[in-house]
Structure formats: C-alpha cells, structure tokens
C-alpha cells in the first residue's frame, strides 16, 4: 500500500514538472518568435532559451529537468530559427558551435541553479526548524506538572516530525509501563524498536527521555509511514534535552516541596509536643491532686466539698477525653484515614447531643438553642459532626468571657442547613480571622489567658465540615462577639 502511494506521488510530481517545462517552453518560444519578427538577431534569441533553462531548473528543482529542457530548447531553436528553417539540419558550422556552447552553458547553469535552490531550501528548512525549536523551548518555560509537560511535548514532536507520537513519563520508580518494549527502553535507557538492534521488527521507535543521571520516561514514534531521518533525529534530540530539563526542574521542585512539607510536619510535631506537655500537665495535676486529697481524707469531707472536687475531676477528665479525640481525628485527617459514615440524622438530636456533652463545662455561661420547628434530617456522620459542634461551643466557652450567652441555632437555607454558634464576647481581632482554622493556632497564651487549648479544635471542624461537602467561616458580630457559621448540604452529592 505504502509503495503504491509513493509511486502515485512520484507520477504526479513528474506530470507537474513536465507541465511546468511545457509552459516555459511555449512562452519562451512565443517570445523568441516575436523578437525575431522585430528584427532581433537570432544569436540573441539563444539568451531567451538560456533564461528558460534557468527558470525550468528553479521551478523543478531538478538538474535532469534542467538539462532535458536545454536539449528541447536547442532543437526548438534549430528548428525555428536556423537555416534551413523547419528542419533539424544546420548549414552554418558557426551555429553548430553556438548550439554546443548553448548546451554546455545550459548544463552549467542548470547545475548551479539546482544546487543554489537546494541550498536555499535547506537554509529555509533550517530556519523554519530553528523557529519551531525556539517556540517549543519558550513553551516549556511556563509548564508545571508531568501531565502538562507530557501533553505539550507530544504535540510539539507531532508538529516537528509529522508522525504519531506518544509519551510515557514515570512519576516514581515503583511504577511499570504496560508496554513491555517501553519498559525495556526505560530500564536500559537505550533506543529500541523500529530499525534498531533490539525489537527492530516493531513498527514503533522507542526513545528514552534521559540525562546522565536519570531516565524520566519514553517517547514512542509511529514509523509506519517511514523512518525518522537523520536530520529529524537531531531535532528530536534537541527537544528531548529540553523535555529532560523541564522534568528535572519539576523533580527538584517536588523535592523542594516535599522538604518543606517534612519541615512543616516536624514543626507541627514539635508544637504539638510542647502544647500537649503543657496542656496535659494541668488537668492531670488537678485530677491527681483532687484524687489524692479525696483518698487521704475519705470520710472526713463534707458532701458539698466532695461533690465539688469530683466535679473538677470529671471536668478535667472530659477535657482530656475531648483533646485526645481531637488529636486522633487530626491524625486520621492528615493520614487520609478519616472514615465518614453518613446517615440521616435529626438536626435537633445533633444539637442536643453536643449541648449535653458540654453542659458540665458551661460554668457561668448561658446556653441558648434555636432549632427548626419541623423535623429536619441531615446526612452526616453523627459522631464527627457532634464533635464539630462540641469544639465550636468549647471555643466560645473559652474565649467569650464570663457571664456571656452562647447561642446554638440551625435553620434551613435552600439546599443547606446553616448551623451557627454565636457568643456576645469580645470577638476575634480582624487580622486573626483568617488564621483561626490553622493547625495549633490559639490566642490563649498570646493574651495571657491560661485557658487550655492546643489549637486543633477549629482545624478539625474545618476538615470534618469540608469532608461532608460543607463550608465553615467565622465573622465578628456588630454588637460584639463572634459567630461561627457552618453550611451543610441536605442531599448526598453524586460523587461522594
């Protein structure tokens, strides 16, 4: 099939060149006839045919057609203009010499013209390729991510070689290509496939993307319609070197980002340890002290004192349990192991459950709840969402000041249920509103507040809410205090 196509293209090219030569021959002859009737010497008419030979050589880009046209033009000149006219005989020996010189000159001119034309074509081709390579190189500058690099590289090589191209880039050494030849090419960092020593019978050429230190992937060229020419391979090597540089840059950026992540993890761990060591000591000391006092003075304490100390023990224990639960949830979130089991829960039950858990920690705070009149069902993980409400109420208790009112409300807003936990305390400084959901962020110690708080509660709230497809935000109230708003979707989304 490919041979038939090539033969057809060759025939078409021959017919085109023959047509060009015929047109130039006709025009040259007509012009020579006109000048001959005007009295121009026939020796000068040869120059017209010399010009015709040059034009034929340029238009056909072939020495054979140039020489062939010179022979045709000589015989035409002899037939039409030399005596005896309309015959191929030459009576004057001078004309014989002139015609021979004409053929020699035409041969030389055709040869030089074709060579010049080919050099110009090569120069134009190189200029075109250089322009393309520069454009490709510029396109690599703003690329980020292996998929984008692979797509751009593939499109660039397709335009450059006019062949079907596929690029396989490996993100880690643990991966393995499904194409066994591509895998061999990657592992051995050697060109293989079409025309090569290894897998030479294959119709595709496999070229590794590599530098002196690392192999990043494999480029697959479909060679069904012909091999890559030597010149094309040079251009391909140039593009591959650019791809390698971009992938190396991407690898270095990933390593840099990974280093930053590791540094941040270590910082968080250190912060956590410092916070835990401080925050655990106080309630544990309280529990231990109260327990020892009760043990040592059992039977001699009045009922009111004993109840007060037991209440302190319960409060500290509940706080410790809440903090441990937050720490466990944060660990699950960071490791991607937070398991959400959604069931339709009654909104009133969610709020009442959270209020029950924090009731002993209210102190002199007043707690008000506002719930929908109708029964409203919300698809959530009850345990996790209750933890969200508990954390928000605890946060209000710690930071709203004494003798303040905390309001927990819920209402239906379109396809969402909006929960609000509001207080009428002093509020949050505006410059800190965008930081309160960060890990370990707390203003307690900055403000000299000795309230306990590792700074995980709000971070966990944000993670749990977003894992349910919801949103959380904090705003300062105009009359003072802060409102935390949680918007939860009422319907389970299709992609969840």
UniProtKB/TrEMBL annotation:
<dbReference type="GO" id="GO:0005886">
    <property type="term" value="C:plasma membrane"/>
</dbReference>
<dbReference type="InterPro" id="IPR036097">
    <property type="entry name" value="HisK_dim/P_sf"/>
</dbReference>
<keyword id="KW-0418">Kinase</keyword>
<dbReference type="InterPro" id="IPR004358">
    <property type="entry name" value="Sig_transdc_His_kin-like_C"/>
</dbReference>
<keyword id="KW-0902">Two-component regulatory system</keyword>
<keyword id="KW-0067">ATP-binding</keyword>
<dbReference type="Pfam" id="PF02518">
    <property type="entry name" value="HATPase_c"/>
</dbReference>
<keyword id="KW-0812">Transmembrane</keyword>
<dbReference type="InterPro" id="IPR005467">
    <property type="entry name" value="His_kinase_dom"/>
</dbReference>
<dbReference type="GO" id="GO:0000155">
    <property type="term" value="F:phosphorelay sensor kinase activity"/>
</dbReference>
<dbReference type="GO" id="GO:0005524">
    <property type="term" value="F:ATP binding"/>
</dbReference>
<keyword id="KW-1133">Transmembrane helix</keyword>
<feature type="transmembrane region" description="Helical">
    <location>
        <begin position="95"/>
        <end position="116"/>
    </location>
</feature>
<dbReference type="InterPro" id="IPR052023">
    <property type="entry name" value="Histidine_kinase_KdpD"/>
</dbReference>
<dbReference type="Pfam" id="PF13493">
    <property type="entry name" value="DUF4118"/>
</dbReference>
<protein>
    <recommendedName>
        <fullName>histidine kinase</fullName>
        <ecNumber>2.7.13.3</ecNumber>
    </recommendedName>
</protein>
<keyword id="KW-0808">Transferase</keyword>
<feature type="domain" description="Histidine kinase">
    <location>
        <begin position="275"/>
        <end position="492"/>
    </location>
</feature>
<feature type="transmembrane region" description="Helical">
    <location>
        <begin position="46"/>
        <end position="75"/>
    </location>
</feature>
<dbReference type="Pfam" id="PF00512">
    <property type="entry name" value="HisKA"/>
</dbReference>
<dbReference type="InterPro" id="IPR003661">
    <property type="entry name" value="HisK_dim/P_dom"/>
</dbReference>
<keyword id="KW-0472">Membrane</keyword>
<keyword id="KW-0597">Phosphoprotein</keyword>
<keyword id="KW-0547">Nucleotide-binding</keyword>
<dbReference type="InterPro" id="IPR003594">
    <property type="entry name" value="HATPase_dom"/>
</dbReference>
<dbReference type="InterPro" id="IPR036890">
    <property type="entry name" value="HATPase_C_sf"/>
</dbReference>
<dbReference type="InterPro" id="IPR025201">
    <property type="entry name" value="KdpD_TM"/>
</dbReference>
<dbReference type="GO" id="GO:0042802">
    <property type="term" value="F:identical protein binding"/>
</dbReference>
<dbReference type="InterPro" id="IPR038318">
    <property type="entry name" value="KdpD_sf"/>
</dbReference>
<feature type="transmembrane region" description="Helical">
    <location>
        <begin position="22"/>
        <end position="39"/>
    </location>
</feature>
<dbReference type="InterPro" id="IPR029016">
    <property type="entry name" value="GAF-like_dom_sf"/>
</dbReference>
């Amino acid at each position: 099939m490919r041979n038939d196509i090539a033969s057809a293209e060759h025939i078409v090219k021959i017919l085109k060149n023959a047509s060009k030569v015929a047109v130039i021959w006709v025009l040259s002859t007509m012009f020579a006839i006109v000048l001959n009737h005007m009295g121009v010497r026939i020796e000068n008419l040869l120059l017209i045919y010399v010009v015709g030979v040059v034009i034929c050589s340029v238009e056909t880009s072939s020495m054979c057609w140039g020489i062939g046209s010179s022979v045709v033009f000589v015989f035409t000149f002899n037939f039409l203009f030399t005596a005896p006219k309309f015959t191929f005989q030459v009576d004057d020996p001078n004309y014989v010499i002139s015609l021979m010189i004409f053929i020699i000159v035409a041969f030389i001119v055709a040869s030089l013209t074709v060579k010049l034309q080919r050099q110009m074509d090569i120069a134009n081709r190189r200029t075109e390729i250089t322009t393309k390579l520069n454009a490709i190189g510029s396109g690599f500058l703003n690329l980020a991510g292996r998929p984008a690099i692979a797509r751009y590289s593939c499109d660039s090589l397709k335009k450059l070689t006019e062949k079907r191209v596929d690029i396989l880039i490996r993100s880690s050494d643990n991966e393995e290509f499904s194409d066994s030849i591509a895998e061999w090419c990657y592992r051995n960092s050697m060109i293989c496939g079409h025309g090569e020593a290894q897998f030479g019978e294959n119709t595709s050429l496999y070229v590794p993307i590599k530098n002196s230190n690392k192999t990043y992937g494999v480029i697959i060229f479909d060679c069904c319609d012909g091999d890559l020419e030597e010149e094309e391979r040079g251009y391909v090597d140039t593009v591959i070197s650019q791809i390698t540089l971009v992938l190396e840059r991407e690898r270095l950026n990933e390593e840099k980002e990974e280093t930053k992540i590791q540094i941040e993890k270590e910082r968080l761990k250190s912060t956590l340890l410092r916070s835990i060591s401080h925050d655990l000591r106080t309630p544990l000391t309280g529990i231990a002290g109260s327990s020892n006092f009760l043990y040592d003075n059992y039977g001699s304490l009045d009922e009111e004192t004993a109840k007060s100390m037991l209440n302190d023990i319960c409060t500290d224990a509940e706080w410790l349990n809440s903090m441990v639960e937050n720490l466990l949830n944060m660990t699950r979130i960071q490791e991607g192991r937070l398991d959400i089991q959604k069931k339709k829960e009654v909104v009133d039950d969610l709020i009442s459950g959270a209020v029950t858990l924090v009731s002993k920690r209210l102190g002199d705070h007043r707690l008000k709840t506002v719930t929908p009149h109708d029964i409203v069902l919300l698809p959530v993980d009850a345990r996790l969402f209750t933890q969200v409400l508990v954390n928000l109420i605890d946060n209000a208790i710690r930071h709203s000041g004494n003798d303040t009112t905390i309001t927990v409300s819920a209402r239906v807003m379109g396809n969402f249920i909006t929960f609000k936990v509001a207080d009428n305390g002093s509020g949050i400084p505006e410059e800190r509103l965008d930081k309160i959901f960060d890990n370990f962020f707390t203003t307690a110690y900055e403000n000299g507040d000795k309230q306990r708080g590792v700074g995980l509660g709000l971070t966990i709230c944000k993670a749990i809410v977003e894992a349910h497809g919801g949103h959380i935000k904090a705003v300062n109230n105009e009359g003072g205090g802060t409102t935390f708003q949680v918007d939860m979707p009422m319907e389970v989304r299709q992609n969840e």
